[in-house]
Input
Amino acid sequence: MIHDPSRGPTLEVIISHFKALNPNTQIIALSATIKNATELSIWLDAKLIQSDWRPVPLREGVFLKNEIKYDDGKTVSIDSSERKALEAIVEDSIKKGGQVLVFVNTRRSTVSVANRLANVIESNLSKTEKKNLEKLISSVKRSLPELNSVDKKLYYCLEKGTAFHNAGLSSSQRRTVEQSFKKRIIKCIVATPTLAAGINIPAQRVIIRDLWRYDPNFGMHPIPIFEYKQQAGRAGRPRYDKYGEAIAIAKNEGQKEEIFENYVLGENEPIFSKLGNQSALRMHLLAAIATNFVDNIQEIYNFIDSTFYAYQSDISALKDDIDEAVDFLVKNGFIEQINVDKLMSTLLGNRTSSLYIDPLSAMLLKKALEKSCNIDPSPLSFIQAVCSTPDVRSLYLRSGDTWVEEKAERYRSKFLIDPPDISNEEYEWFLSDLKTASLVEDWIEEIHEDRIITKYNVGPGDIHNIVEMVQWLLHASREFARMYNFDCLADISDLILRVQYGCKKELLNLVSLKNIGRVRARALFNEGFKTINDLRGVPLKRLAQIKTIGENVANSIKTQIGENIKGEDRELSEFVDKNNNEEL
Output
C-alpha cells in the first residue's frame, strides 16, 4: 500500500506519527511482493523476517502449442486441438475439479472472455451444480428492485458457472461473484488485476492472459512484475489443492522465453513513497499543524524527515517541495504565521483537515459558496462545483460527447466555478468535470441506471463511486456554508439526500424508510402514497400489490411505521413468514 498513490501517503504519515508519539509502538508490516523490504525495515527500525513458505506450493509456467512448461523444468501436455489456448486450459482445470481465475487487461475483456468461457464451463457442470446456480440467480434477482444491463450480462454468465469481475461492478455485484466463487458454486472468474490485490479468493489455477496494458501516455507497455506475482499468488486453495498453478499464455517461442525471463524468473520492482506530490503534502502537513503535532517550519522538516519519502531522498532536496506546500496553505488562509517561527491552523484549516479533503478542494468550494450569494444556484450549480475539485475523479471526454460543450454554453450563468476560456488547455478538463456533474444530475433526476451506463460508458460501480464522493464533498460544502453562505444550507442538505438516494426532492420523505430506495419510492408515489403518513392505515395486501413492493417489503413498511398487522393482513404475513422459513 505504501506504493499506492492514494492510500500510500496516508499509511506512511500514520506510521511516522506512531514512531514519533510512541517510539515503542510495535509495528508488524506484511507483504508478499516487495523487493526493497530491507529498505522498509530500516526505515521502520524493524527486524526483517523473510520466508518462502506457502500453505499451498506454487508452480509457475508458460503455455505454448499444447504444452505448459513449468519453472521446475517439468512439462505437461494439454489437448487444445478443438479449442483455443485459453478455453483448453480452463476446461482442463474444470474437468479435474478445480477452479480458475483468468486475468485480462480491460473491463471489456472480462465480459467478452467470460461469455466465451461460459459454454465451455456449462458443458462440464453436473446436474447438482446447475441447480445450485439456478438457486443463486433466483436469490440475487429477488433482492434487486432495478435490473440493469450489467446485471443481465453477469447473470447470463453465472447461470453457466462463470463470472466477470472488474471495478465497474457495484459492490453487491462484486460480493455476489466473490462469495459464490469461495463457496465453489461458480467455477471461473475473469477479472482485471484489481481482484489480485487484497482480496482472498484463491483458485486451483490462475491464467494470466494479458501481460501488456495500454497507457494513454506510453501506448502498450508490459505490466509490472509485482503485479504479475500478485496475480500468480492467487493460485492454490488451502484444504482443496496439493499445489497451485499460475500459467501465462505465449503466442510464439520468443515470447515464451521473454515471459519466463522477465516474469516467472524475474524479481519484483522496488516500491517508492508517493508522499512527494503536492496534493498529499498539503493535506498531511495541514493535518499535522491542525492537530498541533508540529507548529513551526523546523518541526515540519523534522516530521517529513521521519517519513519513508525522506528516507528514499535527501531532505535538503525536499525542502523546496515542503516550502511550496506550506506557502500554499498560508496564502489561501488554511494556516497563519503568528510570529517568525510559529504556525497555527485557522478555522478554515481545521475544518478542511477534519473533513479529510484536499485543501485545494476546500479553496474551490469556498470560492463557489461566495459566488452563490450573487446568483440563484440550481442543484447542478453545487454539483458542478464539487465535481471541479481534485477529490472527484472526472470521467473521460469522448469524441461523441459534443453535448457536454452545448450544455456548458447553456448553463454558463449557473456555474459556481467559472469555465476557462475555450482556447485554454484547461477547458477540456472543465468539460470532463461537467460531464461527471451531468451524470450525478441524471442520477438525482431518477434516470434509469441502464441509461446512465450507456450514456456515460460506465459501470454500476463507477456510478456509485462518483455518487459517494460527490455526497462527501457536498457534506463538506454544507460545513463551509455555515461559514461563507448560511442561506445555502437547506438546499445543500436536500441535495445531499437526493444524491444519496438518487431521487427527486418529492421522494425524500419516502426514501427515509429502510429497504425503500428510489425505485420503490417512485412506485409508491405513483400510487398516490406521497409521504410516510399516507401509508398509515393502508391494508398490507394493497401495499404488497404495488410493483416492486411485494409482501416482504410491505410487511417491513408496516413494522417501521409502527402498525400492528391484523385480520387478513396477519394471515398474509404469516403465509409470507412460512414461505420465507421454508426458503431458508
In short: Residues 571-584 have pLDDT under 50 and may be disordered. The chain has four domains: 8-49+277-355, 58-264, 359-502, 510-583.
